[in-house]
Amino acid sequence: MNKLILLGNLTRDPEIRYSQGSNMAIARFSIAVNRRSPREGDPDSDFFNCTAFGKQAEFVEKYFHKGSRMLLTGRVQNDNYTNKNGEKVYSVQVIAEEVEFAERKSTADSMFAGGGDGGSMPAPPDPGTASAGDDDFVDIEGAVQGDIPFFQS
């Protein structure tokens, strides 16, 4: 099984292009993932080159930008080739299968309200009132029950 889950921040804005034959969208981006416990002298983050295709690529290009926090599920693919000098070049590519927003509630609120770098993003539907405390959860009782599938009180 080849399954990978990454949680991190985009290091640059996604670059999108379209294939010539099928006109399929292809988005390339890089994500920085913090290590849990870096060893002394080791870098604190790993950087992964990622590619998304089709509607997923268009979604990434439209809603994510440098610094955006992303939860990505995908697979690892070898991208090995021989360069002009006849040397074998080894690289790994992450192919995105699912991409989700992973912003903290306070960051997302400021982005959707027009503040920060995400000011051009459309406002999401109102999920209800935030629960007490500093957590990022939404109070389901305060939400519109008809908007929550399979809600039972």
Question: What are its keywords?
Answer:
five-stranded mixed beta barrel; 153 residues; mainly beta
As a whole number of angstroms, the C-alpha radius of gyration is 19 Å
- Secondary structure category: mainly beta
Ends: how far apart? 39 Å
Q: Which percent band covers the strand fraction?
A: 35-45%
Annotation field: number of helices: 2
Describe the structure.
- The protein is globular.
- About 14% of the residues have low confidence.
- It is built from two helices and eight strands, in the order ββββαββββα.
- It starts with a strand and ends in a 41-residue tail after the last helix.
- It is 12% helix and 35% strand.
- It has 153 residues and is mainly beta.
- The strands form two sheets. A five-stranded mixed barrel has the order 1-3-4-8-5. The chain has a two-stranded antiparallel sheet with strand order 6-7.
Write the layout of secondary structure elements.
Blueprint: E1 4-10, E2 15-18, E3 25-34, E4 45-53, H1 54-63, E5 69-78, E6 81-82, E7 88-89, E8 92-101, H2 105-112
Parallel strand pairs: 4-8
Antiparallel strand pairs: 1-3, 1-5, 2-3, 3-4, 5-8, 6-7
